[in-house]
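Deviation from plan, reported transparently: zinc ion complex.
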Amino acid sequence: MANDGDVSEKRPEGKCCGIIQEATTKSMERRSKRKESAQPWIVLKITIGITLGIISYASYVYIGRFCVPMLKRNSGILGGRRFGIPFLVIFCILLVMMLWAYAVIVFTSPGKAGDYVEPSPEPPPRPVPQWWDSTSDIGAGQYEYTGSNTVGGAQSNGNTTLESHAVPSDKPSEQRDDNAGDADALPPVQAAHARSEMNGDGNGAQQPSGDTSGLPMGLTRRPPMTPVLHPDHRYCFKDGFIKPPRAHHCRACGTCVLKYDHHCPWIGQCVGARNHKFFVNFLQWAAIFCMWTFATLVPGAVQEGRDSDLDAQYIVIIALSALFIFFTVALLVTHVRLILLNMITVESLSKERMTEREKAVLARQFSWYQFGAKRKLKKQWDREWGEPYTDGNLWWLGSYRENWESVMGHSKWEWFLPIGRSDTDGLNWLPNPRFDSEGRPRPRSQWPAALR
Ligand SMILES: [Zn+2]
Ligand SMILES: [Zn+2]
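Because the crystal trials were delayed, the predicted structure below was used instead.
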């Protein structure tokens, strides 16, 4: 484990912005200490009780105060027995399905890296990236195309590349633990500013051969060059071991989780390699359950309001189900997309940062109405590096279907029921062959010939 001494020893000295850097380091140390310990078990799990409480209350209102009175009325209209029976039966089926999926997600561990990985010594201190140095403000050369020599030579010469792209992870990392391309953290505006400076003096970026001829200087894509598969980069200073690829440290659980997506308080644990599928199954059934409740209770309440006084508890359940429809559908859409892309949240955020940065650069270079020119340039970048979410994605398996099945299973039953399991053990992953052995993207010219 890292301690104060270690961290301060590694602090680089003598730079122009040393004071700021020191303050930043101290603040990160303080933050990392505060969040070092996992949350107590009861705090992690109490939300499961709250969730079950909400479900129980909804069931009481729907069955006891909505369906049962309907069953007592021998009427064919809404509010009578003819509607009451199917409402009750369908509600009970959906309730059972949702509780089944909930039980499976609550009791299925995402997989903890510590159960499989032996402790190992800390890697040597990482060089401080140039953007920490005020002198590199202009030279946000960080933003430029780094030339194929860097990318290709990276395997035997990791340090050279780390020099210009490393994350400042020579300390127990915080957000930067997300090793998914943080190295490209140069603010877009600063990057665009730097870009125009470079254009002005004309001795800025190297251009990739051929492709960008005739374009303004520097208008090249620079995908994140973080060596995400390099063991040094995967070291967890809190747990003291090298994490398997895609594992990240969860502060709430206080441990490294395999294919860590996020910590979900509603299930009292993380969503990761071994329960991502069940999380989606739970969201599916929870969304359907909430939709059914909402869609039947609203007309029921209207009818009830006409015949007699409206039960206020209907309103509570209608509001709750509307809230959870929004919540579960949004999460479901997000996770279906992530699974189709074979990404986890941090990996997707890294891509989004790259896209945002490119947008800023394009907005700087072109007028707002030059849509065609912007699109053409983006297409050219995609030809050069591969489309960011498919060929340019480290975990792209070749098609949306393959990505989906690798997580959700190969039978359609598994897609909708909380049964089966994902293909992966969460420890071994098949990287996209378009990337180098340390997980850095390569331009198309360096891809295996069959893939170009
Ligand atoms: Zn860890
Ligand atoms: Zn967690």
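Confidence is low (pLDDT under 50) at residues 1-15, 131-214. We consider this an acceptable substitute for the interim report.
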